[in-house]
Write a structure and sequence with these properties.
alpha/beta; 21 strands; nine-stranded mixed sheet
Length: 577
């Protein structure tokens, strides 16, 4: 392999990277150019959240052969740059691909036009092997004759895969599990929101209106909702479930057509990962655990991209495993680990704003859910009249989990009691608790990170005083990036609702707080033992429900102490004894 000696000097190089380089000559060629530079990149198997604190990242990581990502710092601007490393055809690309397209069109049969992506990929391989075998020659319409060696074949296959099966130039970003959002604002580069490095600029850009419009039209056809000057705005979803919004044409978008993709996470973050990332504390998570176990209604509020849906998916694991859950969403984003889960999605046939011509709205689905005898109803996002139905559900004993756009408890109440939701003020106490969440600036990393700012218990409305009463049981302290649980010994929900449901008398209320602390310690042990995968956490919680809190605490405590003994480390203060 060319340049292997110099590549072996790159930080992070090991046998795994040696194999990757042997399989991907384009990667070896790219890294060879950088290995002798003043700032050679570091090779990493996988990114970690800790890397957000790096001053000038310069990393290469895999997102699935043959695609790799290089994130580096621009010397002139200091901005982070996202550069996909792909086996693209470098010379005469457009001319070659146009001719290959024509050859494929003449030779493909109806039987090879398949819907399943894996079947289409196999059909593509069969066509390529038959029409463009290695060591053959490709003659273009302009008279160009190219020898198809192994390297050219790999590049041609990748180009055709991206165009026929993948998402064209967006393929690396779609593959990358660390990309949350993809933003094209018009002419110029595509921007991304990276889970580790935040806002970042990509090296993929549109240089002309014709190129941009052509790509946007192709993208809209890919999702099955072609745009036009008559219908220039499209909301749809990609095959993996990611949301996409497209605005077509210079007449309504001055910088040219634009699109935004909000990616769909294949595996959600667990409650343990949220604790590790600092989104919430173990005590707060234990508090939510108690509430969800006893069927309290909780809404998660915040601005756009504050992590509301992520938190919602994480806390659903606290709902008892025997529960029946019905979720209702416009785009399926919420994850629920329970087997008895009914997942319902809005159908936008005809006009998405009406219930005519076969369309099914969230309002209809929520009404139907009330007849399905669910233990919990989850509403992906409440915006309009479905909010009134959600309150009707809570009044009739159906607890509701939901997300809502509101930056504070006061704004939430204003929107609920105003048009178009119009909840009577005296009904507000059917909602038990409200989580306020936001993306905040972390001075240590210089990035925005999600934090629960407060948790509020709703007590009710006082008509005489014309005011709403609520208790702020938890607050986030920005100066120390820590959480203060103010509800210890004074929680309205724990004392007046949860304790009663658990058979605890008003003279023994300390027991509910002792159980809260015990659950918080269980979650801390899970963090220390590395039990953080979403489904591993779920299996652990199912086991805890089966054996009981006290037995689970003792078992996890012993596992933790045994691990410390093996490592020869000291236990955490207060753990032993």
């Amino acid at each position: 392999m060319e340049g292997v000696g110099r590549l072996a000097s790159l930080k992070g190089f090991d046998e795994g990277w040696r194999e990757r380089l042997s399989r991907n000559p384009h990667l070896a060629k790219y890294l060879d150019r950088l290995a002798g530079s003043s700032r050679p990149p570091q090779l990493v198997e996988k990114l970690s959240r800790d890397m957000a604190s790096m001053r000038e990242p310069n990393l290469v990581y895999p997102v699935g052969d043959p695609v790799y990502i290089h994130i580096y710092t621009d010397k002139q601007t200091g901005s982070l740059i996202y550069h996909p490393i792909e086996p693209r055809i470098e010379k005469d690309r457009e001319r070659i691909l146009n001719d290959v397209e024509k050859i494929l069109a003449l030779n493909i049969s109806e039987e090879e036009v398949l819907e399943d992506p894996s079947a289409r990929e196999k059909a593509l391989d069969r066509l390529l092997n038959r029409l463009f075998p290695v060591n053959s020659y490709l003659k273009t319409s302009s008279g160009l004759e190219l020898r198809i060696d192994e390297d050219f074949y790999r590049r041609l296959r990748y180009e055709l895969y991206c165009e026929k099966i993948g998402v064209s130039i967006l393929e690396p970003m779609i593959r990358d599990p660390f990309i949350e959002d993809i933003h094209c604002s018009g002419l110029g580069p595509i921007f991304l929101h990276h889970k580790v490095f935040g806002h970042i600029e990509s090296t993929i850009a549109f240089e002309s209106f014709e190129e941009l419009d052509g790509f946007v039209m192709k993208l809209s056809e890919y999702v099955g909702k072609p745009v036009s000057h008559r219908s220039p705005i499209v909301d749809a979803k990609l095959p993996d479930g990611s949301r996409i919004n497209i605005v077509f044409g210079e007449d309504i978008s001055q910088r040219g057509s634009n699109f935004t993709i909000r990616k769909f996470a294949t595996k959600p973050l667990s409650i343990i990962e949220l604790i590790k990332f600092g989104t919430m504390s173990p005590t707060l998570a234990a508090y939510l655990w108690l509430l969800l176990e006893e069927r309290m209604s909780i809404w998660i509020c915040g601005e756009t991209a504050s992590g509301k849906t992520t938190t919602l998916s994480a806390i659903t694991a606290f709902i008892p495993p025997s529960a029946k859950i019905v979720s209702i969403e416009e785009v399926p984003e919420v994850h629920v680990p329970h087997e008895n889960w009914v997942r319902e999605v809005v159908r936008e046939t005809g006009s998405s704003q009406s219930e005519e011509t076969g369309a099914v709205s969230m309002f209809q689905l929520l009404k139907a859910a009330l007849r399905q005898r669910p233990t919990y109803i989850i509403v992906g996002e409440i915006r309009g009249q479905e909010g009134a139905v959600a309150f009707q559900a809570m009044q009739t004993g159906h607890p509701v989990l939901a997300t809502f756009h509101a930056a504070s408890i006061n704004r939430l109440i204003q929107r609920l009691t105003g048009s178009p939701i119009n909840i009577p003020k005296t009904y507000i106490d059917n909602l038990n608790a409200v989580i306020i969440q936001s993306a905040v600036h972390n001075p240590k990393t210089g990035r925005y990170e999600r934090r629960v700012l407060s948790v509020n218990e709703i007590i009710g409305y006082e008509p005489a005083e014309q005011q709403f009463n609520f208790v702020e049981v938890l607050v986030w302290e920005p100066s120390t990036d820590s959480f203060e649980f103010r509800g210890m010994g004074s929680s309205y929900l724990l004392e007046t609702k949860i304790a009663i449901m658990k058979g605890i008398s008003k003279y023994e209320l300390r027991k509910i707080y002792e159980e809260l602390e015990l659950r918080a310690k269980i979650l801390e042990y899970m963090v220390k033992l590395g039990i953080s995968d979403y489904y591993d956490v779920w299996r652990m919680l199912v086991w805890i429900y089966n054996v009981g809190i006290k037995k689970a605490y003792e078992k996890l405590r012993q596992d933790y102490l045994s691990r410390l003994d093996l490592r020869g480390e000291a236990p955490l203060p207060g753990v032993r004894g």
